[in-house]
Amino acid sequence: MIVIIGSINMDLVLEVPRMPLPGETLAGGRFHTAHGGKGANQAVACARLSRAPAQTAMIGCVGDDAFGAALRESLTNDGVDIRHLQQVPDTASGIAAITVDAQGQNSILLAAGANAELHPRHIDQAEQLLSRASIVVLQLEVPLATISHAIERAHALGKTVVLNPAPAAPLPSALLSKVDYLIPNEIEAGMLLGTSLDGGDMQAVQAAAIALQAQGCRNVLITLGSRGVYAALGETCAHHAATVVDAVDSTAAGDTFIGGFVTALSEGQTPQAAIAFGQNAAAYSVARRGAQTSIPYRRQIA
């Protein structure tokens, strides 16, 4: 079983010809709402890409509003186990305001809402679920104290821990040493190291991956968008080129990659094969619009 601990949001998406400048009012195009949140996106990706969707479970929080009800129903429809998805009274569900430009690149603003109410006690209440998991997947859109506690518990239970450090935040080496796979993008990797990697050459990316390993992570996968993934797996480093597609919307592409990667790992595939599976899923997603609406089913990338 794969257990995802993280955020659940309603995405408010606006298409724009380009990103606005500070203080500028810019006429946008199509607007729509979509189910999102990095945690929920990754849970949906795991469920859709798995041979057994019921083997995916989600730990998180939604509000007691209309968005929360819709988000719960959507996860259930995808076969995600939501028995440990808390409904927080008198609280709004998390939202993400997303602008997508004509090149398919996005900019995201978050309001945590109920996501901020996921506490360490909720992790303790799900101890039986964690004990059944093979892989535990986390991000940083819920309180860091909760993520730290969850990593500690998953590591103590001998589970494979996958951390997507987004949005980037300082992380102590003692915590990183309990992470089996750290999966940042270029910007997040640079922020973790106090430098800039955005658009950097592959030597700089390799150096960053090795530096993150030196902080305690066993394996580091730096996602590079259309340039693929750079993987430092133990002592083996390699660049995995991406499948070339016409990108329409990159929203949730990283989440789709992570979902495909951990799904393949859970099925016993090698990390290299799991990277390829995740890349195929991500390539499918960027050619379609939306967050969860763009995440493929296994049959679609078979």
From TrEMBL:
<keyword id="KW-0460">Magnesium</keyword>
<keyword id="KW-0067">ATP-binding</keyword>
<feature type="binding site">
    <location>
        <position position="249"/>
    </location>
    <ligand>
        <name>K(+)</name>
    </ligand>
</feature>
<keyword id="KW-0630">Potassium</keyword>
<dbReference type="Pfam" id="PF00294">
    <property type="entry name" value="PfkB"/>
</dbReference>
<keyword id="KW-0963">Cytoplasm</keyword>
<dbReference type="InterPro" id="IPR002139">
    <property type="entry name" value="Ribo/fructo_kinase"/>
</dbReference>
<keyword id="KW-0479">Metal-binding</keyword>
<comment type="pathway">
    <text>Carbohydrate metabolism; D-ribose degradation; D-ribose 5-phosphate from beta-D-ribopyranose: step 2/2.</text>
</comment>
<feature type="binding site">
    <location>
        <position position="185"/>
    </location>
    <ligand>
        <name>ATP</name>
    </ligand>
</feature>
<feature type="domain" description="Carbohydrate kinase PfkB">
    <location>
        <begin position="2"/>
        <end position="296"/>
    </location>
</feature>
<feature type="binding site">
    <location>
        <position position="285"/>
    </location>
    <ligand>
        <name>K(+)</name>
    </ligand>
</feature>
<comment type="subunit">
    <text>Homodimer.</text>
</comment>
<feature type="binding site">
    <location>
        <position position="255"/>
    </location>
    <ligand>
        <name>substrate</name>
    </ligand>
</feature>
<feature type="binding site">
    <location>
        <begin position="223"/>
        <end position="228"/>
    </location>
    <ligand>
        <name>ATP</name>
    </ligand>
</feature>
<feature type="binding site">
    <location>
        <position position="251"/>
    </location>
    <ligand>
        <name>K(+)</name>
    </ligand>
</feature>
<feature type="active site" description="Proton acceptor">
    <location>
        <position position="255"/>
    </location>
</feature>
<feature type="binding site">
    <location>
        <begin position="9"/>
        <end position="11"/>
    </location>
    <ligand>
        <name>substrate</name>
    </ligand>
</feature>
<keyword id="KW-0119">Carbohydrate metabolism</keyword>
<dbReference type="GO" id="GO:0004747">
    <property type="term" value="F:ribokinase activity"/>
</dbReference>
<feature type="binding site">
    <location>
        <begin position="254"/>
        <end position="255"/>
    </location>
    <ligand>
        <name>ATP</name>
    </ligand>
</feature>
<protein>
    <recommendedName>
        <fullName>Ribokinase</fullName>
        <ecNumber>2.7.1.15</ecNumber>
    </recommendedName>
</protein>
<keyword id="KW-0547">Nucleotide-binding</keyword>
<feature type="binding site">
    <location>
        <position position="294"/>
    </location>
    <ligand>
        <name>K(+)</name>
    </ligand>
</feature>
<keyword id="KW-0418">Kinase</keyword>
<keyword id="KW-0808">Transferase</keyword>
<feature type="binding site">
    <location>
        <position position="141"/>
    </location>
    <ligand>
        <name>substrate</name>
    </ligand>
</feature>
<comment type="function">
    <text>Catalyzes the phosphorylation of ribose at O-5 in a reaction requiring ATP and magnesium. The resulting D-ribose-5-phosphate can then be used either for sythesis of nucleotides, histidine, and tryptophan, or as a component of the pentose phosphate pathway.</text>
</comment>
<dbReference type="InterPro" id="IPR002173">
    <property type="entry name" value="Carboh/pur_kinase_PfkB_CS"/>
</dbReference>
<comment type="similarity">
    <text>Belongs to the carbohydrate kinase pfkB family.</text>
</comment>
<comment type="similarity">
    <text>Belongs to the carbohydrate kinase PfkB family. Ribokinase subfamily.</text>
</comment>
<dbReference type="InterPro" id="IPR011611">
    <property type="entry name" value="PfkB_dom"/>
</dbReference>
<dbReference type="InterPro" id="IPR029056">
    <property type="entry name" value="Ribokinase-like"/>
</dbReference>
<feature type="binding site">
    <location>
        <begin position="37"/>
        <end position="41"/>
    </location>
    <ligand>
        <name>substrate</name>
    </ligand>
</feature>
<dbReference type="InterPro" id="IPR011877">
    <property type="entry name" value="Ribokinase"/>
</dbReference>
<feature type="binding site">
    <location>
        <position position="290"/>
    </location>
    <ligand>
        <name>K(+)</name>
    </ligand>
</feature>
<feature type="binding site">
    <location>
        <position position="288"/>
    </location>
    <ligand>
        <name>K(+)</name>
    </ligand>
</feature>
